[in-house]
Amino acid sequence: MKINKIFALVAFACLTTLTSCFEDETTIGNGAISEIVIDSTSISRVYNINKNQTLVITPRVSQQNGDKQLNYIWEINLEPVAYGPEFTYVGKELGSFNCRLIVENSDGKSFFAFKVNVNSPYEEGITVISNDAQGKGHLAFMLSPADGSKPTGFMQEECFSTNNPDLSFAAYPSDMTQSNGSLIIACKGDAEQGQPGTIYYMNEKTFVVENILTAPEYPDFRPTRLAIPSIGTSGLAYPILCENGNCYEFSVTEGALAKPTKMKYNYAQTVVVQDAGTAGNYNLLFWDKEINALANIYRGYGPYYCSKTYHLSREDCKGSANYFDGRSIVKMELVRMTDEQLKTQSPSALVITYVGGMYQKTQLATAFWEYNYETMENVLIDNIGNKSGTQMCGFGQAPINETTPCVVNQTYTSMLFGDGNKVRRWNYTSNQFITQTDVLQTVGSDNAIITGMEMSADHKRTYVAFYEPSQSGLNGSVWVIDTDKGTVLDKYDNVCYRPVKIMYKKK
């Protein structure tokens, strides 16, 4: 019993001693622990930056007791990449990166985990190719924010050289399109300087050139129009129209160029590319200038020539067998349709021709023919509204030709086209003459010249690209107007040189 009492006293004494040792958890021996606190309001859990953009993080860090030496370690995927109180990171690669900040002193460490998302600055938005007075090419881009908010404006840096510092942009860019994950840009080059025509394959997310095609063995290869669908099929060749009206065949997936086997003649500088967004489902319309006839490459087959006879060959496209017999081409454009409209209507093209001082209009299905299940035959679709066939639409001189920038839309049944600094509107389904069009809006100065047009997917906005010949430097601008009312919605001045092509680049 006495021994038990002694044991109890000893145990109590020990417990009292231990309690006194741990009464203050912030002390080691006789010194206080300097606990590290990373201010969570000064550093985010997630950062979103664009490729090549610089991120700088300067967190606020404090110590609760004392002011001891701090060491900073910045990690990406658990690998140390930087040291010091400030973290500078350049987003050279696209992707999502797990990061961590470690701050330590002689007493311990504090951790803060975060993520850096390096996004494409060229995900989706308006893209413009242009050239200065000497032909030097320029590529500009305006990002459309993913949240649907208003764009902040064009990227002021030259997007080609920024992402390809070791390359020089070939002279006189002429056309661009999207296909198989690439932004494809055609340049005519400079014959006087011995520079050949050039085709660039650029990654559509980064604008980094991944392949370059030149053809010095073909001196006349000066590309002006790329008749390439959004999804190219391996083994198929697509026409590239050149400055002299000749075509070359271009294999998108193989990146090869060859003399034509199908499109062997001379063609006007007006082309329609109708693309359903699936491999092999497309129509390419060309105007054969040698016989004044409309030709179609249908899903890689053809060319077939426009006649009420199904699959008319060029050899048979004579006299009345040629739908456009005796007429010369003025302009042809794809009629833009919304996704909802395409569910119930066939894609179509508006064709404007000229004969004997008279302009005529025809709206054709881009595939020309459709199968009639009642009569069990293929029928040419050539209607404008409820009116069949070709209709007269003007006399005299119209301010429009093969290369006039324009857009046609089904929603407002209008063609908007550039005439100097004027945006003209023609209601192509009405009795209005194309020679008596309305001025919807004017852009820039009186000397401004419109050289490119594009339209939003919902047809509500039209993008008008123009330049000021009297200005030096970046003398090209893009204005956004209401397609129906003509009111100016936005202005982006001095963002390029003389615009050649404006396009909405999709994701």
Mass-distribution shape = elongated
Overall mean pLDDT stands at 89
End-to-end separation: 87 Å
Per the CATH scheme, the topology name of the domain at 122-166 and 399-507 is Lipocalin
CATH architecture of the domain at 122-166 and 399-507: Beta Barrel
Whole-angstrom Rg:
33 Å
List the uncertain runs. 1-28
The spatial strand order of the largest sheet comes to: 33-28-27-26-34-35-36-37
Overall structural class, as computed from helix and strand content, comes to mainly beta
Which range best describes the helical content: under 10%, 10-25%, 25-40%, 40-55%, 55-70% or over 70%? under 10%
Number of helices: 3
CATH C-level label of the domain at 122-166 and 399-507 = Mainly Beta
User: Could you tell me the number of beta strands?
Assistant: 42
The major beta sheet can be summarized as: 8 strands, mixed
Describe this structure in words.
It contains three helices and 42 strands. The relative contact order is 0.08. Residues 1-28 have low confidence and may be disordered. Among the domains are: 33-119, Immunoglobulins (Immunoglobulin-like, Sandwich), CATH 2.60.40.10; 122-166 and 399-507, Lipocalin. The strands form twelve sheets. It has an eight-stranded mixed sheet, with no helix packed on it. The chain has 507 residues and is mainly β.
